[in-house]
Design goal:
The structure holds two protein chains of two kinds. Chain A is an all-alpha fold. Chain A is built from 15 helices and no strands. The two termini of chain A are 30 Å apart. Chain B is built from 14 helices and two strands, in the order H-H-E-E-H-H-H-H-H-H-H-H-H-H-H-H. Chain B has helices at 4-9, 14-58, 74-81, 83-116, 121-133, 136-147, 155-162, 174-201, 206-214, 219-230, 232-247, 251-256, 269-278, 283-311, and strands at residues 61-64, 67-70.
Chain lengths: 294, 312
């Protein structure tokens, strides 16, 4: 094993010998089986449950697998709930969120880390202070702002900007990016300046290529944030044509058979699960770098 | 901008000229810096800083038929007089407390356990984090329709029955509503706490365990005397974050209990904000409730800061 050198709570030697070895393997088997049951079991139940007929789902005791699989439930979910449209909307909002967060949050983090303009620290402090404000507290005044933007007086309701603009105001991203940029040696930037590179050029050709891992983390978080969010899109995207997946499923849940709602929920969860399985390493490292030094 | 050629030619006051040149340079650099900041700053101003102030201002105003007047504490009085106000706080506190009992210690022990394993590490980590990636609405419909089905066809009741335990009405029983919401919420959110703990466990120097073992400390003593003190800051931080997150309980009552639940057993403060603001056409009252929530959470944070700084 690669990490056999690091000592944890219980020593390696103890785990390799007699009683320790037996306990270790028993515990490992129990935990692997238990975790599979607790964390994967409900997902299995969800995917197969949505394949059961209305009669089978009401059966006591419940059946372990669908005896007469009804793929029609998934087809109904896709057609009756207009999932294609909802899926497109959510993708569109997520893509925009990634783009605008990358542009504006990296620019801001770069300014705060390397250009250090006057009042930079004050601005950073004010940004970080927003991490302390619970989202529910701001929901009402944010909504009032979105329906009548100050000075310009535009109503953002049903416009994707209502999702994109508030997401740019993400102090956690700016903090994450700034910390990464801080670790890039000053000499590199000085060298670029001597060569006559403008700040934009330095950001584009030196900083960004070195920051791919952190940009990846920010992008993945942006996608999952849009995909998981519920209340804000529900408030600012009220029309059926502009809804996101979660909001759309919720809106239809009342008048739709349970199995079809679950089938729709499964379809809505597929993209994030795929993203997670593809990028699990980046996601987990991003999670821990952000909070480690707390 | 001053052209660099001009400064070198004007001999009489080179110092002053040079000073102005570097000042111009400074102004220029600061302008560039702020140009890079402006996009993010505008968004923070529009959707964070301004709404914070606006929320407080709104809570002392009343808008009726497009006319806004100052009404002093009227909104607060009206909100507190609403019988749901106290029910919502009682439910929210109970939820926060139960979620803390279940959702705070459990991930810590799961992390300790996972940190000891030399096999299946990646698999277990992916499993624990998987529910975090599901859209909450999807996961909650699963709980609502399949797990918390009050008939014997429901998953949980079927399990209880097969173990010869009494079944439950789940969301239809006022006493089970909050525990059921805590269970669903813990399942959805456990993974992120586990991963954060795992990262901090990996920073504990192995020599500390070595030394404790040589002194004859058993496994539990080592957890108590080494693991917990070494991860104290993260433990305290996550407790705070979890309290703030669970106090904003919203989507669980909305989906699992259709909002208020049986006999108001699910109404939360956040749900009440939503109700007042977007269904009872009382945005000012909702803003006042938001300010009250902010104050309560600020009080919690103050206690937290007090406790953590004292120990250092």
């Amino acid at each position: 094993m690669a990490d056999s050198g690091t000592r944890t709570l219980i020593s390696q030697a103890q785990l390799r010998r007699g009683r320790g070895k037996v306990i270790y393997w028993t515990l490992l088997t129990v935990v692997v089986a238990g975790f599979t049951l607790v964390f994967l079991g409900p997902l299995y139940w969800m995917v197969t449950g949505a394949l059961k007929s209305g009669q089978e789902i009401a059966q006591t005791p419940p059946t372990l697998w669908p005896h007469d699989p009804q793929t029609q439930n998934y087809v109904d979910a896709w057609n009756n709930l207009a999932l294609a449209k909802l899926m497109f909307n959510t993708f569109y909002y997520a893509a925009g969120a990634v783009f605008f967060q990358l542009v504006f949050d990296t620019a801001a983090a770069y300014a705060l880390s390397k250009l250090r303009p006057i009042f930079g620290n004050l601005i950073l402090g004010l940004m970080l202070a927003t991490l302390m404000i619970p989202a529910m507290v701001l929901i009402v005044p944010q909504y009032v702002t979105a329906i009548d933007l100050p000075i310009i007086g535009i109503n953002l309701l049903d416009s994707p900007w209502a999702i994109w603009l508030p997401l740019i105001a993400n102090a956690f991203n700016i903090f994450l990016l700034k910390r990464f940029f801080d670790s890039i040696p000053e000499d590199l930037i000085a060298a670029a300046q001597v060569d006559g590179a403008s700040p934009l050029r330095t950001l584009w050709s030196i900083i960004l290529p070195m920051s791919r891992p952190i940009l990846g983390v920010v992008s993945i978080f942006a996608v999952t944030a849009v995909w998981k969010d519920f209340l804000w899109p529900k408030l600012v995207m009220p029309s059926p044509e502009t809804r996101t997946l979660s909001v759309g499923i919720y809106a239809f849940a009342g008048g739709t058979p349970q199995n079809v709602v679950i089938a729709a929920s499964v379809i809505a969860a597929i993209p994030t699960v795929i993203i997670f399985l593809l990028f699990q390493r980046n996601i987990m490292s991003g999670l821990t770098t952000g909070s480690l030094k707390g | 901008m001053t052209a660099p050629g001009v400064t070198s030619q004007s001999a009489p006051a080179p110092r002053a000229k040079k000073g102005r040149g570097s000042l111009g340079r400074k102004v220029q650099d600061n302008l560039t810096g702020h140009a890079f900041l402006i996009g993010a700053v505008v968004c923070f101003a529009l959707f964070m800083w301004y709404p914070m102030v606006r929320g407080i201002v709104m809570s002392f105003q009343r808008t009726r038929r497009g006319e806004t007047t100052w009404v002093g504490w009227d909104n607060y009085v009206r909100i507190v007089a609403d019988p749901s106000f106290w029910t919502a706080w009682k439910n929210t506190f109970l939820f926060t407390l139960l979620a803390l009992v279940l959702g705070y210690a459990l991930p810590f022990f799961v992390a300790i356990l996972l940190n000891e394993f030399r096999h299946a590490k990646g698999y277990l980590r992916v499993l624990v984090y998987l529910p975090v990636m599901l859209p909450p609405a999807s996961a909650l419909f699963l709980f609502k329709y399949y797990a918390y089905d009050p008939s014997d066809a429901g998953l949980f009741n079927a399990i209880l029955k097969s173990l010869h335990l009494p079944t439950s009405e789940w969301m239809q029983s006022p006493t089970m509503t909050i525990p059921a919401m805590v269970l669903a919420s813990t399942w959805m959110n456990l993974g992120s706490a586990v991963l954060i703990y795992l990262a901090s466990l990996q920073n504990i120097p192995g020599e500390l365990y070595e030394a404790a073992e040589l002194d004859g400390a058993g496994v539990w003593r080592r957890i108590w005397n080494v693991t917990i003190p070494q991860t104290r800051l993260i433990l305290a931080l996550l407790a705070m974050l979890q309290i703030v997150a669970t106090m904003q309980l919203f989507i669980e009552p909305l989906i699992l209990a259709n909002g208020a639940g049986t006999q108001d057993s699910a109404t939360s403060v956040a749900y009440l904000i939503y109700q007042h603001g977007f269904f009872q056409n009382d945005l000012n009252g909702a803003a006042a409730l938001g300010v009250i929530m902010l104050l309560v959470l600020a009080a919690f944070s103050a206690v937290y800061v007090r406790l953590t700084t004292k120990q250092d």
